[in-house]
Each structure stands twice: as structure tokens, then as C-alpha cells.
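Example (one chain per record):
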Amino acid sequence: MEYEKYIIDNIMSMSGKYTPYQIFTDWITLSAISIQNACKLIHDKTYEHREELYCNVAKKYSADELRILSNMTGALSLLLGDKMCDVLGEIYMKAGCGNKNTGQFFTPYNLSYLTASLIYGNQFNQSEDEQIEINEPSTGGGGMMIAIAQVAKEHGIDYQRKLHVIAQDLDWNGVYMTYIQLSLLGVRAIVVQGDTLMDPYRKGYDECRVFRTPAEEGVLI
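Predicted structure:
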């Protein structure tokens, strides 16, 4: 199956009542909350807040449509297993979600990969036995973090054990996209919603705006 085409085709076929942009946004919101809340053993206020958000988004869709959205997440997981790249960024653009009205576009992954190769390639040769800390102040869909993980892998480094990411973005779509992709790739990461300059991530940050990947939580998916 062509997983990317499957996802895009479903976004387009479901559009009508909602735009492709809204369907994409709802899909990644549901997927991110599903992954994060599945990692939580303690059902605290943050858990309940996210469950409420999930239900408010889910009630817009029929049972069959929710099943399709769930299958799309499964296809995304398989797609990321086949290739490391900013899959969600590519789907977002190919489904026609990026336009002047939304004001949101994503850097082509080949440029992110080139940048990561030029900046981090030599450093990875010196870091084989060290933890690699990456801070991303404007994560977008997580393409640069994925590219860094790919370059580390190509240098023989187990990025799932050695790489640790703190990524932040003002836009919730960027947070969800980064979180989902880094979760499915097994990257230890903390993904934060907020203005990095005015309100950078720190101890005591509002937990409703913080998503930790399963690898960061010590959970297998």
C-alpha cells in the first residue's frame, strides 16, 4: 500500500463539511492526545483536560470517520518505519493545507537533511559515547529533529538512546506534528507549546502545554 497516498486520499475524501486543513488538524490533535494519554498511569487534571479536548474534537465525526482517522495514524506509523523524513509536513503540503490563508508552510525535508548533515555531521563523530542534547526553538513539524536523528543513525549512533530533544513552537499544529513523529520514531523528546523567546520551557511549566514522547516517559509503543 502507498501509505502517504492513502492518508492524503482519505483527507480529501472526507473534506466537504470541513476543509482538508481542519481534517488534518483534527487528525493530528486526536493522534497526539491518544499517544500521550496512553502513556499516563495517573489520570490527573492534565489527563482529564486532554480527554475533554479529544472528545470535543471526536464528536465532530461519525464512527466510520473516526475509524478512518485511526487507520490513517496506523498508516503514518508504517510510513515512518519505511523512511525517516518529515512525513506529516509533506502530507500537509500535498493535501493543500499550506496556503496564504493559513500562513503555514513546511520546509522541504531535503533542505532540513542537508542542513543537519552540514552542521551536525562532524559533531556526531565526536559524540558516540555521549548524550546528545538538541534544543529546537521553532520546531514546525519536527523536520529538522528528524533530519538530525537520521544523520546520527547514518553515523552509527543509536539516536533512540543517545539523542534527547526539547522542541518548542507557538503553533499547536507544529507541536502535535513534532510530537507524533518523534514518538513514532522512538526519539526521547519533550515538545512544548509556547513562545520560546517570551516563555521558554522551564521547570514548573504548565503541563497542559507539555507533551513527552513515549521514549521520554519510558514507555514502549
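Caption: DSSP finds ten helices and four strands in the chain.
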